[in-house]
Design brief:
Blueprint (H helix, E strand, L loop, with lengths): L27 H8 L4 E2 H5 L7 H13 L3 E6 L5 E6 L1 H4 L2 H13 L1 H8 L6
Antiparallel strand pairs: 1-3, 2-3
């Protein structure tokens, strides 16, 4: 039995679109973070990604699968289940994401100011 994903894994006050560095579509980075610890079912991903519409989450998963970052596995026994997991290529995204997150954290106030139109022009 794997540890469930925390519902508050992502801070709702921290918009993912604030970072100028994006990995895939708007939600791909968050999906990759959810899969970092191992395979997950769609329903498990919905817990921390509750603000993502089901349609957008499905589109993000499909896009990540097309680009080779995520593998989708259908299990038929003992019950039918679909799991998503990072591929080796997907796991290679973790280090660049950590660097981007560290940079965004360091420049958080500047990013907020710029977003609110308070940055220098």
């Amino acid at each position: 039995m794997r540890t469930p994903l925390a519902p508050d894994m992502f801070d709702p006050v921290c918009p993912s679109e604030l970072s100028p560095i994006r990995f895939g579509d708007k939600w791909a980075g968050l999906v990759i973070r959810c899969l970092e610890g191992g395979p997950r079912r769609y329903s498990e991903l919905r817990v921390p990604l509750r603000r993502v519409s089901p349609k957008a989450l499905t589109a993000s998963l499909r896009s990540l699968e097309r680009t080779g970052l995520v593998a989708r596995t259908v299990r038929t026994a003992p019950v039918r289940a679909v799991e998503y997991a990072l591929t080796p290529l997907g796991h290679s995204m973790i280090a660049p994401m950590n660097a981007a997150c560290a940079w965004a954290s360091e420049h958080w106030d500047e990013l907020l100011d710029a977003r609110e139109g308070l940055g220098t022009r």
